[in-house]
Amino acid sequence: MPPSVPPPELPEGLRLDTAAVKVLAHPLRNRMLGRLRGRGTATATELAADLGTNTGATSYHLRKLAEVGLVVDTGEGTGRRRLWRAASQSHQWLASDFAGDEDAETALGWLERDYVRLLADRSNRWLDVAADWPPDWRDALGINDDHVVATAGQVTAMYAEIDEVVKRYRRVGQGNPSARRVSVWTVMYPIDLDRPPRS
Predict the structure, then answer these.
(1) Range 51-64 burial, b when 16+ CB lie within 10 A, else e
(2) Per-residue three-class SS string for the chain
(3) Average pLDDT, whole number, for the chain?
(4) Does residue 30 carry a pLDDT above 60?
(5) Are strands 71-73 and 84-86 parallel, antiparallel or unpaired?
(6) How many other CB atoms sit within 10 Å of the CB of residue 129?
(7) Fewer CB atoms inside 10 A, N or C side of the chain?
(8) Angle, helix 27-39 to helix 55-67, in steps of 10 degrees
(9) How far apart are CA 55 and CA 110, in angstroms?
């Protein structure tokens, strides 16, 4: 799929529960879901070719993802060539949803670290090719480092505002031949790691 043509609009975010986070905390499943969200529907065979694995593995893991509502069978495939799509545009979670469930907390820890690795990998790939892009794109893209002083509630409100801005711009360039899909990450962490606040 050309980079200027996004996959069809998907429903908004899905909130991970304990079953979903345990299923998603797997390298191939996480990559499969990312592929379906980024490039649209695919069969198990197409996913296997894209991700360098075999159809048996992708078929098995698609069923696991479907069991927890992260992917769906579109019903548009023929015979054994089932066509799959992501069930939502994104997913979110609250760490407190998994408190006390050691397996879910471990799965979430793995998943969050995998996203950090993915962000670093994709950012490095961009830096490898940035010199080949036009100056206006190089000026528009990149990394901004800033900080705020806020309570947990205020940070939550700020995140909600950022999320609304992203939603507003999600399809703003559709149909424009100069538009390209741009990945937007929101990463927040405390600076004073040795000073956790009191509950």
Answers:
(1) bebeeeebbebbeb
(2) CCCCCCCCCCCCCEECCHHHHHHHCCHHHHHHHHHHHHHCCECHHHHHHHHCCCHHHHHHHHHHHHHCCCEEECCCCECCECCEEECCCCEECCHHHHCCCHHHHHHHHHHHHHHHHHHHHHHHHHHHHHHHCCHHHHHHCCCCCCCCCCCHHHHHHHHHHHHHHHHHHCCCCCCCCCCCCCCCCCCCCCCCCCCCCCC
(3) 91
(4) yes
(5) antiparallel
(6) 8
(7) C
(8) 80
(9) 25
Tens digits of residue pLDDT in 145-198: 999 999 999 999 999 999 999 999 988 999 999 999 999 999 999 999 999 998
Give the whole-number percent of the chain exceeding pLDDT 70.
93
Other residues' Cβ atoms within 10 Å of the Cβ of residue 184: 10
Q: Which residues are 42's β-sheet partners?
A: 84
pLDDT at res. 8:
55
The pLDDT-based confidence of 9 (bands split at 50, 70, 90) is low
Residue type at 69? G
d(CA 22, CA 130): 36
Query: What's the length of the chain?
Result: 199
C-alpha to C-alpha distance for 10 and 19, rounded to whole angstroms: 22
41: its two tokens: 């529907």
Q: Is the pLDDT of residue 5 over 50?
A: no
Which residue ranges form the domains of the chain, and what is each CATH number? Answer: 14-121+143-169 (1.10.10.10)
